[in-house]
């Protein structure tokens, strides 16, 4: 096998185009083929992007494919990942990693036995936006971080997604759908979490598909639609997290981290290259936009898959490792399933925080 690594993608729905745009720009990886449970959809996407659209079996049997990206809905992630592992290929899955901690642990154990890596979204934290704020903390620019506030809310995805039912089924909801961006950001900035105290709720707001051929179709709601939590990090910092599909508007910052010598405003963790701001106690007395100091430049969804392949080649842990995703998922499961009388729930997983990506690194050599 030459220097270029082969990638296949299973799931050619709404998010496919963003992955294609990133992978097409990287010399290190080559998108070889796509597949979908709906062959007509795979054919249409294959034609649009001039890619071979093949059956799942053919894609999994292709020796030129080293890694498969899984872009199926949450409930299919583990079953599809297991097929990819059984085919002896590395996996990069969309989030969440699994629907329960036990399922996630079993998946990683299966991958270890097969000698392949499982990585998981989000990879947004590898962009210049969040890598720069992580580096600002590691450089001591806000002193010792002691608290963080993450607050994301929206009315739900049904106004814009043409097939949004999966957002309200197990594996979806604001906690497992948007939570991975926020909790991954908290863990990569402040380190792993020791315990989670949480409450959640689901309202009886009627939900219907808002656009496309299914417009007006009622949606079943089988997940909490709003939650709040306190995360106690191993380093002693306390994060508050609010995630909601019930919110019409919010004037609050999405993510702030407070330190003994300053405050960081993080950029939207759903994106790669937005800029954060800093207020330093001994600074000019105002917010200052951070110049990029770390991260893959102008990157996008899919960079994590290339980074995982590079990590395998270099014999190190991928930055979007399954162990990081399992920890984030364990925190999110605790928030999603917390009962009214629950006290703090102890976390059993404790991953290493991934190393900072040097500014402008090439994924082929990082
Ligand atoms: N849409 C977004 O903006 C967005 C953003 C970030 C992450 N994601 C994540 O990406 C994943 C996919 O989201 P989407 O919006 O593209 O969904 P989608 O419903 O538009 O597309 C999913 C595709 O997977 C296919 N599929 C379903 N089960 C399958 C199986 N068992 N085997 C093979 N193919 C199967 C479906 O036919 C469909 O084409 C989800 O996990 C979602 O959380 C989506």
Describe how the helices and strands are arranged.
Blueprint (H helix, E strand, L loop, with lengths): L4 E6 L5 H10 L3 E7 L3 H11 L6 H5 L6 E4 L6 H10 L3 E4 L7 H14 L3 E3 L7 H11 L6 E9 L19 H5 L1 H12 L2 E9 L24 E8 L4 E7 L10 E5 L2 E4 L11 E4 L7 E2 L13 H12 L7 H16 L7 E2 L20
Parallel strand pairs: 1-2, 1-3, 3-4, 4-5, 6-9
Antiparallel strand pairs: 6-10, 7-8, 7-14, 8-9, 10-11, 11-12, 12-13
Question: How would you describe the overall organization of this protein?
Answer:
The chain has 366 residues and is α/β, with parallel strands linked by helices. It is built from ten helices and 14 strands. Helix 4 packs parallel to helix 5 and helix 5 (101-114) packs antiparallel against helix 10 (322-337). The chain is globular, with a radius of gyration of 20 Å. Nicotinamide-adenine-dinucleotide (NAD) is lined by residues 10-15, 36-38, 41, 71-74, 76, 80, 94, 163, 177.
């Amino acid at each position: 096998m030459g220097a270029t690594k082969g990638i296949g993608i299973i799931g050619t729905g709404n998010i496919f185009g963003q992955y294609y745009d990133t992978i097409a720009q990287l010399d290190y990886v080559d998108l070889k083929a796509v597949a979908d449970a709906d062959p007509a959809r795979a054919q249409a996407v294959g034609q649009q992007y001039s890619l071979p659209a093949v059956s799942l079996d053919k894609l999994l049997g292709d020796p030129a494919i080293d890694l498969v990206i899984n872009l199926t809905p949450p409930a299919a992630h583990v079953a599809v990942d297991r097929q990819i592992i059984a085919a002896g290929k590395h996996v990069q899955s969309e989030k969440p990693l699994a629907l329960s901690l036990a399922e996630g642990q079993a998946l990683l154990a299966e991958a270890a036995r097969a000698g392949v890596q499982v990585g998981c979204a989000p990879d947004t934290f590898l962009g210049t936006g969040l890598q720069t704020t992580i580096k600002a903390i590691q450089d001591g620019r806000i002193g010792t971080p002691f608290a963080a506030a993450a607050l994301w809310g929206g009315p739900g995805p049904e106004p814009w997604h043409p097939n949004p039912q999966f957002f309200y089924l197990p594996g979806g909801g604001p906690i497992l759908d948007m939570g991975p961006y926020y909790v991954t950001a908290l863990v990569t900035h402040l380190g792993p979490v020791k315990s989670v105290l949480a409450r959640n709720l689901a309202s009886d707001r009627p939900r219907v598909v808002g656009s496309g051929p299914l417009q007006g179709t009622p949606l079943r709601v089988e997940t909490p639609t709003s939650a709040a939590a306190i995360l106690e990090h191993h380093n002693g910092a306390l994060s508050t997290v609010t995630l909601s599909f019930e919110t019409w508007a919010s004037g609050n910052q999405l993510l702030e981290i407070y330190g003994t010598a300053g405050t960081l405003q993080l950029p939207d963790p759903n994106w790669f290259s937005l800029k954060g701001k800093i207020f330093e106690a001994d600074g000019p007395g105002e917010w200052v936009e951070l110049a990029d100091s770390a991260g893959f430049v102008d990157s996008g969804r899919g960079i994590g898959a290339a980074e995982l392949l590079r990590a395998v080649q270099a014999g190190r842990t991928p930055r979007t490792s399954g162990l990081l995703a399992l920890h984030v998922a364990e925190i999110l499961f605790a928030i999603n399933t917390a009962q009214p009388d629950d006290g703090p729930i102890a976390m059993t997983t404790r991953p290493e925080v991934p190393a900072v990506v040097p500014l402008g690194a090439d994924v082929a050599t990082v």
